[in-house]
Amino acid sequence: APAYANAEKVLGKFLSKKKYIATKLSKIPEEIFSNKKLLKENIEKSIDESFKNLNIKKLDLLLLHQSEPELIFNKEFKDIINELKKKNKISFIGVSVYDEDVLKELVRDDFYDAIELNFSILDQRKLKILNSINNKLVIARSILLRGMLTCQKDNIPENLKEIVHKRNLIEKIAKDIGVDYLSVLINYPICTKGIDVIIIGMI
Question: What is the dihedral of CA 131, 134, 137, 139, to 10 degrees?
Answer without folding.
Answer: -20
